[in-house]
Hints:
Two copies of one chain form a homodimer.
Chain A: E1 3-8, H1 16-31, E2 35-40, H2 46-57, H3 63-87, E3 92-95, H4 97-100, E4 102-104, E5 113-116, H5 119-126, E6 130-134, E7 137-139, E8 145-147, H6 152-164, E9 168-173, E10 194-196, H7 197-205, H8 213-221, E11 226-230, E12 238-241, E13 255-259, E14 262-271, H9 276-286, E15 291-296, E16 303-311, H10 315-328, E17 333-337, E18 340-346, H11 356-366, E19 371-377, E20 380-386, H12 390-400
Parallel strand pairs in A: 1-2, 1-9, 2-6, 3-6, 9-11, 10-12
Antiparallel strand pairs in A: 4-5, 7-8, 11-12, 13-18, 14-16, 14-17, 15-16, 18-20, 19-20
Helix pairs in contact in A: 1-3, 2-3, 6-8, 7-8, 9-10, 11-12
Amino acid sequence: MSLIVQKFGGTSVGDTDRIGMVADKVAGFRAQGHSVVVVVSAMSGETNRLIELAHSVQERPVLRELDVLLSTGEQVTTALLSMALSKRGVKAKSYTGSQVRILTDDAHTKARIREIDDERLHRDLADGYVIVVAGFQGVDENGNITTLGRGGSDTTAVALAAALKADECQIYTDVDGVYTTDPRVVSEARRLSRITFEEMLEMASMGSKVLQIRSVEFAGKYNVPLRVLHSFKDGPGTLITMEDDSEMEMPTIAGIAFNRDEAKLTIEGVPDMPGMAYSILGPIGEANIEVDVIVQNISHDKTADFTFTVGRNDLERAEEVLNQVAKDINAEKVTSDSKIAKVSVVGVGMRSHAGVASQMFAALAEVGINILMITTSEIKISVIIEEKFLELAVRALHSSFGLEKEPNDEGAA
Amino acid sequence: MSLIVQKFGGTSVGDTDRIGMVADKVAGFRAQGHSVVVVVSAMSGETNRLIELAHSVQERPVLRELDVLLSTGEQVTTALLSMALSKRGVKAKSYTGSQVRILTDDAHTKARIREIDDERLHRDLADGYVIVVAGFQGVDENGNITTLGRGGSDTTAVALAAALKADECQIYTDVDGVYTTDPRVVSEARRLSRITFEEMLEMASMGSKVLQIRSVEFAGKYNVPLRVLHSFKDGPGTLITMEDDSEMEMPTIAGIAFNRDEAKLTIEGVPDMPGMAYSILGPIGEANIEVDVIVQNISHDKTADFTFTVGRNDLERAEEVLNQVAKDINAEKVTSDSKIAKVSVVGVGMRSHAGVASQMFAALAEVGINILMITTSEIKISVIIEEKFLELAVRALHSSFGLEKEPNDEGAA
């Protein structure tokens, strides 16, 4: 008899038939004696419909009112799912964010959760109710409706699981778990039965869209076991937990992540002097452009080359800023390249296993791929390569680290 | 500088263009320096859409959840109207029923308002905000969302006006006021510039659909001046107020109301004895059928005829009940007639003016209409006639009481 928080996204509750299927699933857990809290998103398409309505009234809608508007989407789903459960003989009660009292700050459309009142929920759970909570929304201390921004429903689920000290937080999606890499690129990609929060964070930030980064951070912070499952297929999914020190079998590498959303900028012939990096990246930061990988070439004849990557959408603006910077600091010229990709190997095991980087570089060299930039963290090594080599690189790395095999079958890694 | 509560129904906010037009109107009142609280319904069609969703999930939706679902309709409108106002440079803030704290009982889908917290509203009004409140909804003392049932937005507006001690509660509709009778029947029908609550109640209960009875009762109880106006045409509308004793010009008759929704049942040859009326109407009441006009004929040869009207929808059921009653009390037979209509003259003036009844009967006799039943109250005389004579009767009465003329122009009445 566990307490489980389950989150179903917009596609899973996309129409009333699907809401019925979700109700069947929830009813199954109840029948097994579990206490269940369900967090739901707006029915797919509904949030966009509401946003269009808002924009047809006001070009840049007042954010307070946008939250009032958008929060109705999830509220509708909670009512319908509660009805569907009740139709199946399962006692259920819907809650809006403010009814739970999911207290947030007052940053409309991107509010942060501060505190959750769990008293009433515990009472209803004790009374045998399934609790259906509107995801993505909360209330500030003045009673104004707030929303949590993208992926907010995942965050709601994790925050509720933390507040209620749930045994597990299950995120139902359209994939049956987290994979070693994108199965569309590597057909041998394998579903991971477990991954650590840190690895999941790296995978997520690298373009694995299964979970929103914020909810993984949150789950890690409060140590809420998180499980990714398919909404309509049975299966164990992927469990995301803390690293277990006792576990000897933890594989070195969890997976290969990649993304094509970056572009590379180089400012060449920069006079080598203290403060150079700041004089270049300061104006970029002021323009609200996020920088990812940064490399400063070893200076020769008293000038240096400075290369960094930004989101592809920001390339044009970044170039403008950088051209001005080049003039100001007497640099030679600015070049850019948007035909690049980033590939990363991710795994907490590399903390204790040497040789991952050299294995990575060797695997890429073997298939003739030139590495343009390198950046590392404790549990991740990323390389920037030409975009056309992306799939080749991912396959080579997946195979080199033996990710298609279950960790237990592995000889050495 | 007055405090005005304005209510706009579903058609008035039917799409974003119309919401813009409403915003223009509200902005106009603000520009004149008035404080404004706006109560809105769901955009037309939205409530039906939500009800259909509910029914596609559960045949008889749980009422608590139906309220959660339906209340989103008005919430959407409040957000959009607030945006439209803000676009016009008017500070505005939306409120749900629970944000205001419109406290109701817990009778889901037909809750009654108990109390309104006006503190926060007064603060926002003082800060120069237009307040946009979701009509039709409230919250019970356990924080559950409730709805007020049909015409609930009118009730919300009147209740807010009472709580805030507003100078006027304006109900915007698709007609430009209350008329002496239906202009589709009498082309000379005239808009009344004033009518009393009691008269309005009688007019409303007789089929004048301009305002919901409950909101008029409420306005009368708390003496909130109520004005009916057209949403998109300028004009003074009709003011509904207390009877003003000082006013000499109050016309005898305010208007002619009528409806075709009734049917007549007669139980003939009832043995004349004490308790007869109860033995007939008791079972009808138990079957939840409402009875309107009741007439008991003078008994002859120790039996009586007992006639009453019910809603046409209830006729079949009422006949079944009555046939059983006839057997039980040894009555002769039961007959029914659904081709009847009720016509009423309504006016507080008849309290102090004699001769209204005889003038009414004379007018009907003059055009050859036979009166089937008569019933009177202090401010109303109703007759049941054959349905085919309805229009003729209304026209004859309208003309006989000179309703096409402004009261001031009247000689005698």
